[in-house]
Amino acid sequence: MADTATTASAAAASAASAATDAPPFQLGKPRFQQTSFYGRFRHFLDIIDPRTLFVTERRLREAVQLLEDYKHGTLRPGVTNEQLWSAQKIKQAILHPDTNEKIFMPFRMSGYIPFGTPIVVGLLLPNQTLASTVFWQWLNQSHNACVNYANRNATKPSPASKFIQGYLGAVISAVSIAVGLNVLVQKANKFTPATRLLVQRFVPFPAVASANICNVVLMRYGELEEGIDVMDGDGNLVGSSRIAARHALLETALTRVVLPMPILVLPPIVMSMLEKTALLQARPRLLLPVQSLVCLAAFGLALPLAISLFPQMSEIETSQLEPEIARATSSRTVVYNKGL
């Protein structure tokens, strides 16, 4: 009966929005095809849309209620596919897919760029002291740790000790690598002062990339021990798989290496060229605002590109998983929440 009601709601929504360009609404499914990189790119552009940060509590409740009405076949007449897609976008941007709880605003994916750009600017400031290097690496990894934890696969409970281990491991690795590389650069006598300054600007990337891997692995190590839930094509729970957990962590770690590349590599190159222009040489006070804009542009490009590498709901063949998982379902493939 519920399936019939849902089908009726889908038909009503489709008919009501036949004149629009919105595709037919599918509850819990992405609006754009996830089999292609371009489809995932458009999907994650929706997820990181900073406008969702300003959604009111009332609008969120309305969006959730609209989706509930669709699910139970009680959708009011005249609701369009566009309205349903918009409601689902709001829900996915604010509520965790596993716990259905609100994610704290600075740690949502839609808040990653607005709240992360000032940190990126700080990481790339020239002539860093030891204290400033430690501070910005600590702040960056603190932000990353909270974002990782807030957007983790939450189908299995994780103790706070795992979060603390991951956080401390990421901070120690990031600070150690950044400080060590800075010391090496300072002691490289064959570098000219200008070359030394340029090289120093690239120090944050290897520090951040390696720390990001450490952060992901340590904070989500429990998934490797306990496994993560895998589901068949109808959303039915099949079992808990440690092999799927390894795939999820590998994909997330690769994303965390690719993400800082444009953010921490492009701005130093662009700024080294812009600083030679007559405008910035005559007005050095513009350096920080210009660098902030360059970092914001690089961040805005890098984030959707990086997280589009793999679907959030990844698919894996059951033959690759544990024998008990393969025996528990007739589906050729199962899906799992990779996390972001």
TrEMBL record:
Superkingdom of the source?
Eukaryota
Instruction: Write down the InterPro entries for this protein, in alphabetical order.
Output: Mtc (IPR004686)
The membrane spanning regions, by residue number, are 166-185, 197-218, 257-274, 286-310
A GO CC term assigned to this protein in UniProt:
mitochondrial inner membrane
Q: Does the keyword Mitochondrion apply?
A: yes
Q: Does the keyword Transmembrane helix apply?
A: yes
Q: Which residues form the signal peptide?
A: none
- GO BP, one annotated term: amino acid transport
Gene Ontology terms, MF aspect: citrate transmembrane transporter activity; monoatomic ion transmembrane transporter activity
Q: Name one Pfam family in it.
A: SFXNs
Q: Which UniProt keywords apply?
A: Amino-acid transport, Membrane, Mitochondrion, Transmembrane, Transmembrane helix, Transport
Cellular compartment(s): Mitochondrion membrane
Q: Output this protein's name.
A: Sidoreflexin
